[in-house]
Amino acid sequence: MPPSPLADRTLRTFLEQLASAEPTPGGGSAAALVGATAAALARMVAAYTLGRPKFAAVEARVQRLADQLARAQEALLELSDEDAAAYEVLSAALKLPQSDSSRAARIAKAAVLAASIPLETATFAARVHSDTVVLGQIGNPRLRSDAEAAAHFARAAGLAALANVRANLELVEEGERARFLTGIEAAESALHVK
Description:
Blueprint lengths: L10 H9 L7 H21 L11 H36 L8 H36 L5 H26 L4 H17 L4
């Protein structure tokens, strides 16, 4: 029986597993969950804006942002599990004996997956960041600090995910690296990394 999704565990259980000497969940899963937290907090800002006559002029725009954030939240929760699974595949490939003729190819293939998932996490986190910044500008001003906190969480999630991409990039075959470098650059631009 496969383990329960990380999102279905209690917060205390997740944190204890994260703190353990086990390799998963690790930084990539944590980054995705922080991104999902950012999306949820931003959705709270939207919830305190929607349906209030005072914000009728921005209702449709806030609703679109809330819908995008809900989709991003779900995607990031899924990515937290996918990241753990991808790292387990990479870890198994790295443990193969040097004499195994398939070792290099298996490591390279696993590294592509282990770099792709945090890159996707960073991309979603960047979208959450962007949506949250807009919500902070047009949403209920009483929740501006929540919008700001959500934007910080989203940015941190994106930067943490990019650290995992870079960590796995050295194992990716040279011909594949350009795609990842382009993705890193795009995510950094969206996250306003100087």
